[in-house]
Amino acid sequence: MADIFDELNEDLRAERARGLARRYGAMGAGVLVVVLIGVGGWQGWKWQQSRQAEAASGPYLAATGVLTPGAQRGQPTDPDAFAKIAATAPTGYRTLAELQEAALRWSAGDTAKALALWDKVGTDGDSPMLRDLGNLLWAQHSIDAGDPSAIAARTSKLQAQANPWRPLAQEVDAMVAIRQDDKDKATRLLRTLVADPAAADGLRRRASELLVVLGAPPEARG
Questions:
Q1: Residues with Cβ < 8 Å from 183, sequence gap 6 or more?
Q2: Tell me, what CATH number does 35's domain have?
Q3: How far apart are CA 204 and CA 221, in angstroms?
Q4: How many domains does the chain have?
Q5: By the 8 A CB rule, do 196 and 168 touch?
Q6: Residue 17 main-chain phi, psi, to 5 deg
Q7: Which pTM was predicted?
Q8: FRET partner for 23 with CA separation of 20 to 30 A, picked from 45, 63, 175, 206?
Q9: Is residue 8 part of a domain?
Q10: Tens-digit pLDDT profile for residues 96-154
Q11: Alpha-carbon distance 220 to 12, whole Å?
Q12: Is residue 7 in a domain?
């Protein structure tokens, strides 16, 4: 009887961990979208100083709500507006517009289009950092239903020590391990995150909470 209760506790713990993983993955993606909106605003100001980008800066800032009177800044709603910008915008704005469009398509339930856009950015984004971000976002949004080997192929590109997306990529790997009921791998990855000074405080906190749910608190040794 004790064995049965132990098994039930393990199942409940794993299910709760998967639920937290899904919630935290969505939170991480949302934070990145907010960051991108901020980057877009800064890029808009910078590019407005250049005649070459004047044609793109106005539509981009209007689409994000920055130039719309009475609009709530940082709350864009029209993915088609960003699609039009990406079709004609110069380097920089094109990739930012594609990332914005992808986030909005995903929010609207068009997951296939969103994943295709993140895949495009991951392949031909305007800079290595944005290409890496495209791969990270594709992986984050594939945690629940994506092929684990395909996700691993994306996150493996982000594992260099100096890569700014490395901790978030490791979080994705840990969540996929939870989804696959690979507690040992998930525990190892999450403990690495907790001890990683390059990981953001919120990311380390999420990793600690998931370890507790998995029954493997950070201070444990194994």
A1: 14, 177, 214, 216
A2: 1.25.40
A3: 17
A4: 1
A5: no
A6: -65, -40
A7: 0.70
A8: 63
A9: no
A10: 888 888 988 988 899 999 999 999 999 987 788 889 999 999 999 999 889 999 999 99
A11: 21
A12: no
